[in-house]
């Protein structure tokens, strides 16, 4: 019955049944209800086979050399660079691909080398992952002014007028996520050009966006694009990218050099010359046995069809939102408070919420995490490394936040008590390539069966020690 209602409301789900076939074959190792695609994607068996076949077929050596094993690795790494550019429809003359361990590594490369200083500001949306927020520490040390653009409740979007105001015509770096890893909000990509017009370079964090949405770098031209491939492809871990405009890379000043990054170096004269290309940013030996897996993963995803994945994620997200909004206790009070938009307009497949008890009190997210796990559901709980979205969600004022910084807190529980927050975080559900209607139904059955008409009792839960 529920499925018929769902199909009635989202008929295009029927066009994505190919994904059910793949779930039963290529993704059959998904042995429970996995709902954390914003945390990490899932890999297909084909990706594992391709890895084993490649490694079993010949010898691969350290890329920094001229021997056959080394050349074999270099060729595959370069081929993967080209594949990344093709996937993003980026012109190789305009964009470079720098391999990093993950998106955080890409953010750090930018932060530590960006020419911050007086006259160059850092502007960020409140909605940012900590790996982008952390760039502010480089900016602070260099004496740059930092400005955060606030979120507007209840949808937790950013008002375009506020972006205009923050991007005063000065130089600097503007950093924002294409999709929030907290609320799923998709911020306008048109901000990239707006920022350029105002003299800013742009870091567009696509870590949460790219797994189910296309990015076309021939149309939208951010300067720095951090990516974690395990989020897009499920496998490999340990490989990310900084995709960067070549002219923006030329502005960066690396604070050090390392093996692999230099064209020439002298110890006696304490002199070095960085490599003239993207390898200047690739410290040490690349993950040469896994980088080629990115190329295979991208061809796998392309063959499935990013649009198909997008449509499936869209329909499942719509249905989940529809149902969460109407879940009620017997006394008529809502069971759920959603953070961010409750409709599908300009949002991706990440939904954050808290469960409420019949008196409207928040059910502790640690309880939900434990009970979901015992029922075979992988949900994400906590603050998702996005404190700005959390502060927006709970509407915490600046004065409260400054107090906590002034008095100092040691654990996240201390911090919550100090600023009077009702909860340390939320529950997050996110969808991807192998998600099905059955997964959503299992989640909804669990939520209704476990929390309907039940009081919020947090007794006996382990303390929160970190965000
Ligand atoms: C939006 C966003 N940016 C950056 C990151 C950092 O990714 P990683 O931990 O792989 O470096 C994440 C991870 O969750 C994310 O969701």
Automatic annotation (TrEMBL):
MF-aspect GO terms: transaminase activity
Keyword set, alphabetical order: Aminotransferase, Transferase
InterPro entries found in the cross-reference section: Aminotrans_V_dom, PyrdxlP-dep_Trfase, PyrdxlP-dep_Trfase_major, PyrdxlP-dep_Trfase_small
Domain Aminotransferase class V residue range list: 33-443
Cross-referenced Pfam families: Aminotran_5 (PF00266)
Name of the protein in question: Aminotransferase class V-fold PLP-dependent enzyme
Organism: Paractinoplanes toevensis
